[in-house]
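Standup notes, protein team

Yesterday: finished cleaning the Williamsia herbipolensis set.
Today: Sugar dehydrogenase structure.
Blockers: none.

Input for Sugar dehydrogenase:
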Amino acid sequence: MTPSLRWMRPGLVPVVAVLCAGLVACSSGDGPSGTSSTSTLPAGLGADQLVSTRLTAVNGVDAGAASGKSLNVPKGWTAQVWADVPDARMAVWTPDGRLIVSTGKGGSLSIVTPGSGDRGPRVAQLASGLSDPQGVAMTRQGGRDILVVGEDSRITTWTYANGAISDRRVVIDNLPTGGHDSKMVAVDGDRIVYNVGSTANRSVADRTATPVRATIAQIGFDGTGNTTLAVGVRNGEGLSVAPDGTVFTAVNEDDNQPYPFRDGDRFGTAVRSYINDHPNDQISRITPGTDMGWPLCVPDSRGKADLRDLGYVNDPQFNSDGRVLDCSRIGTTMLGLPAHSAPVGFVFTRGSRLPASLADGAIVTAHGSWNRQPPREPYVAYTPWDSATRSLGPARLVATGFQNSAGKRWGRSVDAIPGPDGSLYVTDDTAGLVYRLTPGR
C-alpha cells in the first residue's frame, strides 16, 4: 500500500510524513512597506537568510488582505498570492496535479486547478455540507485514488478521479467533539492515523474519560482495528509518516501553564515570563504505547538551547509529587518548538522538487498563539532529517511576516506543502488565500 500524498510529483509516489522543527529567529514584515520589525520568535538560527519580499498576485487573483504586504523568505525566492480560498486550512495534491484544500468552519472542500501560462488557477467546490473538515490525505488503495478527510466526529474516504470525488464511505463515526476537535489524518500503509484532541486547555480527566481524549489512534480503511497509539497528546494536529516509516506528531501544548519548578515561592503560580515561553510545543515519534505526559508532565527545556531531546518535569497542579505518573520514565520529546507556536501543517520533503537545502527534512507550519503577550507569530520552518539517527534536527525559518511588531496579523499560516513545480504552497485561513513561494533557480 502507498502512503498518503500531502504533495505529489507526477510519476512519483513519495513517502510523506510528519514534521517538526526547533526554531529560528527572523524579522517579520511590518505592513505594506515590508519594513522589518522585532520578531516574537527566539533569536538564533537563520535570521540573516530571510529577506522582506513584496507579495505579487497571479493574474486574475484578488490579493485581498495580502494586497501591498510582504513576506520574509530566503534570498532569491519570490512570493505570490496564488489562489483565493476562503478559510483555507489543510491541503493535499491530487495525482493529476490539482490542490484540494479543506475549509474547516467553511464546511467544504475546494479544488484548485492550476491555470495555463500566466493565468491564475480555477477554484471550484469539491464537496459541501461537511462538518468542520480539516485533515486531508491522498493515497492509492485497491487500484483507486482515495481521498481521506477528517471531520469533527468522523473519518471518511472518497474515490478521486478527474477533479471529482464519489463513493463516500464513513470509516469511523461518533468520535469525540468539543474542545480541540479538529481531526487531522495521515496514511500509514493500510491504516489511517488520526488525532483526538483534548477537551480543554488543562484537563486531567481526559486521561480516564470514555473514550480517552488527547490521543493519537489508527484504524484500517475497512473500519476495523481501531487502536490507540499514544496518550497524553494534548492536541497533536501535525501528523505524518517519516522516511523511516514511523509516525510523527507535532503537538500544541498548554496555555497558562503553572510554574513547575521548586526554586522559590513561584511554584504552582501563574508567572507571565514563564508562560510566554513555556511549555515548548512538541514534535516527536509515536510508537504504540507512547505517553507524552499531558497534563501530568511538562516539557522541560532548561539547558537545551537547541530544544532537542527534552525531558519532563512534574505538573504542579495535577502531579506535584510524581505519584500519578513518573515523568522520568515516559521518554523524551525529540524536538521542541517555541511555546504557543501552534504547529498545524507538517510534511516531510524527501522526493520533492524543493531545492537541496530543503529536500530531505520536514516543513512545519505554525498558526501562532492567541494568549501570549505579545502573540507568537505564525511561521513556516524547515528541520533536516538525519537518516543515521532517524531524527529531526534544529530548524530554520522559511517564511514569516504575517504579523507586525504590535502583534496585529493580516494573515495566519496553516499548512505548507511542496508543489509539483518545486514551489512551496502555503494556506492562510485568516486572509483566505493560498501563497506560492518559489525558490530562486
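Follow-up from PR in the comments: The longest strand covers residues 164-172.
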